[in-house]
């Protein structure tokens, strides 16, 4: 009998040797992963490439917008120009602005990292404009300041390691001392390629089996990184 994928154990509280936590943005810090795929599916269908929201998640979750645009343009049956990406960004921005919210446990986890003196940053496949918009609407912008990195900053986006390596280098940390929190297979692959530890987060629509290769485990709640079985810390 063929067995399903073996899931990694639940991630433990933050290890004592982690000196930088790198967060993805969409679906980890802010609740946009239910919005974006629905918009992409509708716009792809309008362009002559019928897709469902679930198909969009499987194909594009965690990947840079340039990859999304190239795929849409390649499969469309009507002409698709740069204005498609502009309209997509505007639709996502407006939809999120109507109901901005963070993922559960974000504030608690950031407070915990601040208390422990562990720095953190954002490294997202989204554009700087989109990241800033999401962080501003949810009140998180002041928590991250200038520690925000986008696929726009590097040659190759996720699943290539470039973005995570760039963030670590700018902030002065070695890959082995970084912990990445990701909700997409592409993001997990990027972290592993960067020789970083990575936690798979399934608090959004991503199935745990899709993140089973996360080497630091899988969590359904971000607060599991603060406390495990009633024991806080992780020292």
Write the layout of secondary structure elements.
Elements: E1 20-23, H1 36-46, H2 53-60, H3 65-75, H4 83-98, H5 106-116, E2 120-124, H6 128-137, H7 141-144, E3 148-150, H8 162-171, E4 178-182, H9 185-193, E5 197-201, E6 218-219, E7 227-228, E8 231-232
Parallel strand pairs: 1-2, 1-4, 2-3, 4-5, 5-6
Antiparallel strand pairs: 7-8
Helix pairs in contact: 1-2, 1-4, 4-6
Task: Summarize the structure in words.
InterPro entries: HAD-like_sf (IPR036412), HAD-SF_hydro_IA (IPR006439), HAD_sf (IPR023214), PGP-like_dom2 (IPR023198). The chain has 235 residues and is α/β, with parallel strands linked by helices. The chain has two domains: 20-31 and 101-225, Rossmann fold (3-Layer(aba) Sandwich), CATH 3.40.50; 34-98, DNA polymerase, domain 1, CATH 1.10.150. Helix content is 38%, strand content 12%. The protein has helices at 36-46, 53-60, 65-75, 83-98, 106-116, 128-137, 141-144, 162-171, 185-193, and strands at 20-23, 120-124, 148-150, 178-182, 197-201, 218-219, 227-228, 231-232. A six-stranded parallel sheet has the order 3-2-1-4-5-6, covered by helices on one side. A two-stranded antiparallel sheet has the order 7-8. A hairpin with a 2-residue loop joins strand 7 (227-228) and strand 8. It is globular.
């Amino acid at each position: 009998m063929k067995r399903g994928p073996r899931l990694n154990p639940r991630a433990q509280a933050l290890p004592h040797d982690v000196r930088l936590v790198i967060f993805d943005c969409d679906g980890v810090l802010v609740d946009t992963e239910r919005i974006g795929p629905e918009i992409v599916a509708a716009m792809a269908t309008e362009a002559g490439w019928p897709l469902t929201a679930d198909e969009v998640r499987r194909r594009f979750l965690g990947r840079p917008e340039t990859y999304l645009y190239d795929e849409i343009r390649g499969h469309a049956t009507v002409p698709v120009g740069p204005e498609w990406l502009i309209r997509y960004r505007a639709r996502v921005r407006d939809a999120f602005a109507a109901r901005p919210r963070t993922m559960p446990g974000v504030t608690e986890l950031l407070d915990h990292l601040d208390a422990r003196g562990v720095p953190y940053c954002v490294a997202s496949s989204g554009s700087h404009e989109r990241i800033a918009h999401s962080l501003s609407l949810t009140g998180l912008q002041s928590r991250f300041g200038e520690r925000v990195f986008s696929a726009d900053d590097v040659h190759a986006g996720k699943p290539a390691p470039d973005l995570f390596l760039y963030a670590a280098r700018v902030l002065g940390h070695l890959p082995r001392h970084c912990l990445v929190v990701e909700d997409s297979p592409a993001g997990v692959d990027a972290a592993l390629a960067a020789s970083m530890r990575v936690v798979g987060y399934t608090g959004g629509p991503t199935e745990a089996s899709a993140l089973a290769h996360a080497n630091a485990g899988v969590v359904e709640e971000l607060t599991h990184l603060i406390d495990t079985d009633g024991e806080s810390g992780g020292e």
